[in-house]
Each structure stands twice: as C-alpha cells, then as structure tokens.
Write a structure and sequence with these properties.
Length: 113
C-alpha cells in the first residue's frame, strides 16, 4: 500500500452540513476502493493566492490516505465532476506525518499578537 496526502478546496459558501456530506462522500469512495483514511483534517476557510472560478476564499479539507493507484484514480474521477469543489491535489508520500497539525491555532500564537 502507498501513502497519499489529498487536499480538497471547496467553495467558500459551502455550509458545514455540506462539508460533512463531502467528507462522507469521499470517505465512502476511498473505502470502497481498497483504501483507508488514516487521518482527516478540516482546515477551514482560507484566503486563496489567486481567484479560482471567481472565488477569493476556499474551505480546505485534508485526507491522509493509505491506498493504491486505483483508489486515487476513482477519487479524482468523482472530484472532476463535483460542482462544490474548486481544486484538489494528491501527493504521494513515503511516510505520513500524523503528529503535526499545521493549521491548528496555538494559544501561544494568539497571545503573542
């Protein structure tokens, strides 16, 4: 099995219930294609570097996946036709980093500002 980090950018106006539906939808696709979700993170709404389909912000979802090429192929095939998504990116990694939360707000960061 290979390890992948997969990030989705959903439209800014996507409601929390729709975000949950997206998470469930892609979780089912991954698991039905011999994959396993090791970790899921919702990074929230962040500013985009440039306009994507007339959107300035996007709602980021990040999956850490254990699977094979068939799993990713099926996942990306479904994402191409999903109107709620702006972009997606899959990166194959040698080892998954499960300890670091890159977009989690630390209490020290908030108190420093």
């Amino acid at each position: 099995m290979n390890y992948y980090e997969h990030t989705l950018i959903a439209r800014q106006d996507t409601s929390p219930s729709q975000i949950k539906q997206l998470q469930d939808k892609y979780t089912k696709i991954i698991e039905s294609n011999e994959g396993n979700i090791v970790k899921f993170e919702s990074w929230g709404i962040m500013q985009l570097s440039y306009l994507i389909k007339k959107n300035k912000k996007g709602n980021y979802l990040h999956f850490k996946i254990e699977g094979n090429g068939k799993t990713i192929k099926e996942l990306e095939k479904n994402e191409k036709i999903d109107k709620n998504l702006l972009r997606y990116l899959t990166v194959k990694v040698k080892k998954l980093d499960l300890e670091t939360d890159y977009f989690k707000k630390n209490k020290e960061d908030i108190s420093d500002k």
